[in-house]
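To illustrate the input format used throughout this study, we show a single complete record. The first block contains the structure-token representation of the backbone; no residue identities are included at this stage. The design step must infer an amino acid for every position from geometry alone.
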């Protein structure tokens, strides 16, 4: 916990610096003087922002989809109290209720119900309210990331750099402005200083300081189940001088790397958040919010796996926002979908082994590459399963997911116990149009669903003998008693695909929600 700001000691200056390094003290002092950080206790800024749905891109070579605009956006950061309050209005019914922007999109959860949204982090606690006066919804799983984000802005970084344990170091380099887009150039070269610190005792945070002593970029890595040590970067422009304090109005945030021109088929990651916030008010902040008791008492809930037998040898594994389906064959097991992360997948694997003992999980069918549906793929690779996915995902999975690239912030099973299958090259079976998993008696038909606006490379599974179709995001059954949803493009793709293949369906086993009869879906058919 940061409870005091400590001045940098003189040890670094007294020692001989390694080649390529410079003394960070005068660099930080000059930057603090340039923006007036020492006199800034809190900051409030307002404007209009945008949100990126990280991990939800339709094609792998496109940006994260933009969500609805974040209108009436206001954020207050109280550095001394270690609190941040964000409020904005956004169209309801389109986004998961607990989703702010960027990382955290979670399909299969309750949707946002009200326009007004508030997200708060206070010290080690985080919460959200859906509408003015609504009860707080604890967000313990996001508390550390939101707390880290308080220090990833120019004044925040400078204050964090003087905190105990920050251990700042600095290097210099010549930087080519937008060299990735413009190609080789000798113009617009600027000598910059990059100061690196440790934040929250674990995150290495790098700030690029330009010749005007302004911080133009802050970058770190955060753990992510798909991208591993994921790039998490803010860029700042449009500096405003307000009341003796300089603060950027232009914010641009990447999750993943931006402008990866040489990997056109791989998710380059991209714009998670940004906007223009020209209404800047330094040191005019309300008292920091008190942490509500339900938030203070909340913990990350344990993973629950609830099983429902759909047919002999077929189980729906639910209990959370995402499901998997286990299918027993004569000598092996196939699981459809590895959602969320390793913790969820390990729980599903353990339950599958209890239900179907003494048979290996030989195949894992991945419906599509959205992050909330692919975060557990490495776990199944770890236990020896072969991944079945659409052919469009092969390059992305090999480059970014199913490999030996170390994950240092949150090491997973593949990092700790490297499977030989990666070296041997047999980790995936890819599907173009149709694929069948069979033991000569039971068949699991896997097919490519198109056209689909939700995502490219969508697969669906079908058990013909049991008349069960297994699908993700094509149809999410409403809760019992809820109104029938209006038809959308995903529903039409689902219906047309079933008709074109001539499938005889009795039961839908969705990967979000409860299993329902096919007749329930027909109620919304256009």
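Output of the design step:
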């Amino acid at each position: 916990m940061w409870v005091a700001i400590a001045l940098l000691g003189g040890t670094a200056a007294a020692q001989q610096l390694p080649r390529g390094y410079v003394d960070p003290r005068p660099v930080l002092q000059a930057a603090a003087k340039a923006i007036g950080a020492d006199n800034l206790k809190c900051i409030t800024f307002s404007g209009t922002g945008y949100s990126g749905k990280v991990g939800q891109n339709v094609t792998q070579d496109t940006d994260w989809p933009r969500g609805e605009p974040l209108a009436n956006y206001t954020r207050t950061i109280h550095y001394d109290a270690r609190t941040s309050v964000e409020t904005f209005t956004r169209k309801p019914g389109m986004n998961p209720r607990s989703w702010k922007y960027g990382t955290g999109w979670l399909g299969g959860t309750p949707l946002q119900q009200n326009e007004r949204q508030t997200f708060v982090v206070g010290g080690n606690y985080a919460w959200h309210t859906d509408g003015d006066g609504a009860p707080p919804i604890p967000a313990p799983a996001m508390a550390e990331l939101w707390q880290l984000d308080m220090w990833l802005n120019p004044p925040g970084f400078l204050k964090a750099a003087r905190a105990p344990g920050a251990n700042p170091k600095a290097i210099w380099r010549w930087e080519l402005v937008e060299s990735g887009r413009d190609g080789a150039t000798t113009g617009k070269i600027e000598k910059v200083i990059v100061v690196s610190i440790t934040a929250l005792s674990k995150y290495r945070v790098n700030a690029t300081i330009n010749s005007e002593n302004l911080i133009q970029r802050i970058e770190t890595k955060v753990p992510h189940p798909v991208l591993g040590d994921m790039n998490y970067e803010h860029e700042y422009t449009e500096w405003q001088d307000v009341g003796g304090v300089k603060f950027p109005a232009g914010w641009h945030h990447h999750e993943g790397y931006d402008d990866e021109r040489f990997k056109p088929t791989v998710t380059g990651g991209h714009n998670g958040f940004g906007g223009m916030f020209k209404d800047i008010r330094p040191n005019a902040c309300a008292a920091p919010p008190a942490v509500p008791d339900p938030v203070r008492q909340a913990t990350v809930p344990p993973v629950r796996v609830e099983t429902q037998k759909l047919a002999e040898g077929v189980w729906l594994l639910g209990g959370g926002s995402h499901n998997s389906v286990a299918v027993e064959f004569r000598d092996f097991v196939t699981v459809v979908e590895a959602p969320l992360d390793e913790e969820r997948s390990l729980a599903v694997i353990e339950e599958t082994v209890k239900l179907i003992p003494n048979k290996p999980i030989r195949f894992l069918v991945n419906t599509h590459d959205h992050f909330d549906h692919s975060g557990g793929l490495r776990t199944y690779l770890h236990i020896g399963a072969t991944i079945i996915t659409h052919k469009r995902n092969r390059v992305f999975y090999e480059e970014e997911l199913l490999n030996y690239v170390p994950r240092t912030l949150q090491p997973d099973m593949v990092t700790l116990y490297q499977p030989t299958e990666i070296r041997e090259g047999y980790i995936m079976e890819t599907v173009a149009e149709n694929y069948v998993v069979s033991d000569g008696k039971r068949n699991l038909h896997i097919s490519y669903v198109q056209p689909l606006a939700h995502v490219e490379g969508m697969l669906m599974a079908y058990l013909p003998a049991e008349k069960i179709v297994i699908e993700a995001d094509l149809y999410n059954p409403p809760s019992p008693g809820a109104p029938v949803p209006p038809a959308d493009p995903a529903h039409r793709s689902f219906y047309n695909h079933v008709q074109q293949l001539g499938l005889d369906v009795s039961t839908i086993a969705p990967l979000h929600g409860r299993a329902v009869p096919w007749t329930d879906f027909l109620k919304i058919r256009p």
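Structural context for interpreting the output: The CA atoms of residues 47 and 277 lie 4 Å apart. The chain has 14 helices and 27 strands.
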